[in-house]
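hi! just following up on the protien thing from before. the input was this:
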Amino acid sequence: MTRRHALLLRSLPLLAECLQTHENVYLAVPGFAEQVTVFRRLAIKAQLQEQCSLRIDTELPIDLQLAREALIQACRAVSGPLAGWAAVIGDERLRNQVNSTPDELRAIGQGLIDHARAIAAIGRRTLPQGAGHYGVTKIALERLDQETEAFSAAVGGFPGALPSLRTASDQLRFFLRDVMDPLVDGFLLSAPGFCAAYRQARKGKESTANDRDSLQTATRDTVLSA
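and the predicted 3d structure came back as:
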């Protein structure tokens, strides 16, 4: 579970409460109300997947866990210097492509094999271009190849044991970013209290009593003046 996904999941009850509390504000906008239904469906999927991820990680065979952790370390030994070099030369696209936390790598399940091979390919391509100056080495690349094959063999012995655990959370995160967040801006003038409550919930923060009073007052005044 990545920190980003953990924050997202922590915000779900707050978002659900916010949308329920301010339902009278957005029900007059059919398209928004439809997307609230989509949000609720995606939220349930993400929460169920979180429970699945916790169960799967505790049930993984020890050989598979060890092979995965060894590959993650080998990946980071190459991707770390690559990401640092990319930052130095200002290649943000490359930095984002190679920079992953251990939790993010665990969450992609068997996709870790393809990811590791992609990191190795980037490392070999950029080694003579300057990445070697920042710590990418042939030895690290060879170790990455070895650990990739070892993990691939371990996965082959336990088919289906490592499904990707990112899909539902990522789908929800992109939905909130690309759909709900912009739609909420449509209420900035007509219901600023709703917008403020939504933004606070998105940050995973509980409203204080003073915050709730001010938000409710703003919303009530807006509804009365409409």
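DSSP finds eleven helices and no strands in the chain.
Residues 208-226 have pLDDT under 50 and may be disordered.
cheers
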